Amino acid sequence: MDGVVEVLHAYFPSHAYPSHTHDAWTVLIVDEGAVRYDLDHREHGLAQAQVSLLPPNVPHDGRSVHPEGFRKRVLHLDPDRLGGAGLVGAAVDTPEYVDPVLRQRIHQLHGVLVDGREDLEAQSRLTLIEERLQQHLRQQVIDPPDRRDAAVATKLREVLDGHLLQGITLDEASKLVHAHPVHLVRAFSREYGMPPHRYLTGRRVELARRYLLEGRPAAEVAVLAGFYDQSHLNRHFRKMLGVSPSRFARP
């Protein structure tokens, strides 16, 4: 995925990291236990309510606070995604944030990346995460103003409708609509009450319903409606309608 260099989910019952560096931004959350680490010769701690952002090419280590170890999830982001070297000093000074909104967004992105088939959703979630991290680095974390932009939202809806089967990336949509990716996601969500990826999935499920009612088999419907395969269709169809495609089509 563009912008994400590596994803790591790990449980360490006893391992302690020696001092090392990464050439990417490291976004870390802890799901069990707590972590203590030195960053640029200063000690820090990370608990489950926090998010840690470690800058590229700055030495750090890591070890568990408790004897039972820790479980963590990590995103390594391309070094240019957060504005480059100019914000490294801010991350060294304050690498932990207590931000429930940010932590929830990171949790959701990990879930999408595990599935690996929801490109537009992953890109949308990553864009909002990067915006929030940049705000922290600049010490300007604010809730975005509730400004509507119906023209941008309508144009994006037209673009999504035109790419219903083949899909589209957030960057591609941004170029077609001539708007920043963050603005695209926010404007669409405010106008239609759902993010772009959910709208696209809903349209595909609606198309799948029509094909199923025509008597087509679910495996064929999945391809015709723009899903990767039948399991991909089944998951979204059941989530939206509460029944499987085969049960829906049963007379």
TrEMBL record:
The keyword DNA damage does not apply. SMART domains: HTH_ARAC. Residues 154-251 form the HTH araC/xylS-type domain. Keywords: DNA-binding, Transcription, Transcription regulation. Pfam families: AraC_binding, HTH_18. It comes from the Bacteria. This is AraC family transcriptional regulator. It comes from Kribbella ginsengisoli.
